[in-house]
Amino acid sequence: xxxxxxxxxxxxxxxxxxxxGAKNAxxxxxxxxxxxxxxxxxxxxxxxxxxxxMLSVIEQLGAKTRYNRSSKSIEIDxxxxxxxxxxxxxxxxxxxxxxxxGALVSRCREAVVALPGGCAIGERRVDxxxxxxEAMGAKIKIENGYVIAKAPKLAGCDIYLDIPxxxxxxNLMLAAVLADGCTRIQNAAREPEIIDLANFLxxxxxxxxxxxxSDITINGxxxxxxxxxxxTTIPDRIEAGTFMTAVAxxxxxxxxxxxxPAHLTFFTNKLLKMGANIKLISPTAIExxxxxxxxxxxxxxxxxxxxxxxxxxxxxVLLSTANGVGIITESLYENRxxxxxxxxxxxxxxxQDRNHxxxxxxxxLNGTTLRASDLRAGASLVVAALMAEGSSIIENLYHIxxxxxxxxxxITLLGGxxxxxxxxxxxxxxxxxxxxxxx
Length: 439
Ligand code: EPU
Prior knowledge:
Low-confidence stretches: 427-439
CATH topology of the largest domain: UDP-n-acetylglucosamine1-carboxyvinyl-transferase, Chain
Bound molecules: uridine-diphosphate-2(N-acetylglucosaminyl) butyric acid
Largest sheet: 4 strands, mixed
């Protein structure tokens, strides 16, 4: 049996939705917890399969973990570690687990971590992570698909990143926490998730300065300087952007709560230019509404504070029915237009040339059977199905479950018609029966 969504489009989303904790922040905080010889408690943890995978990685190291879903909190007790190995079966499921490398090198001065390999959206190399650790004195061998790092001496140094890589910045920050002396990361990533990690590290006794700028300094501290903490992670700006899209695309009106509006400036500006209305309701809530067909704008994905690649597929859904022609340029990943063939099957008019997509808005999309190819492309198909005429079936939900907690419950609360169902049906002929069932 496989799980699928059955979505009936055309209902404007209305009401209020609570945005959860940031997946891409909390996974790194979990890895950073391994630095402390003691217990760390993290709040506002979203209920996601990626969080479960990271818990398994940490448990394999010998740390004790407790996940309380009702209070959305996780406790990680890394007083004792019994292993320095992160195995391929877990790392291959989730690239973010590679971040454990920096934490292990920092605390244990050695690590054996599977190389994550490429993924659906691109090659996603880790050469900056490795080169940075080597510059700090780690001896690194790649054997049988594993990174084997030994660093009896780990010393701070100046590191310049060719690209402001989020993962490399985080891995090197973690490695530098317990290194000797001062590490300076130049051309560092500036994402809010980097600031969250720095705040978390500083709360536990580390000395990180400059996070949020492209020049981060980490003054190494001693193991005994690090202590137990309790910390609440930031809201998920990509989940927020997804719901902003869904509300605007369905011409609805809804309040998004538990967000940091400043983290969404990139998206708010674009949506306003397209003709949606966005009002600040409180320091942590906005109201999004849209009454008529949107105008087109162009999008270029960039590292923060530019337009995020993780919302590129959402921008495409908005442009697919906007009034005019819009161009999207994807500058971070080689293969992140996986939603294009599926949107075309819904009637979208999209011409793709390498990393550019030219989208000529059509009056409406039509529901059909759709397949999620990765997390963000999958979520964009859900949004497209919500605004389309007729019903859609969405397959491969496991991609979407990696990054959106209670997705269908939140959409249902806003009045969207969506159901998850178990199916062993694979042929589109058989699906006709499913369209008429349920919703
Ligand atoms: N890159 C290299 N070498 C490296 C590292 C990166 O060439 O050593 C390249 C990558 O191939 C990519 C670009 O640099 O083309 C940016 O990669 P980055 O390292 O910044 O991305 P990441 O850390 O692997 C995180 C998020 C992604 C998000 C990117 C960019 C997590 C767990 N993942 O990935 O989120 O797209 O930053 O903002 O934090 C998602 O949530 O759906 C997702 C893919």
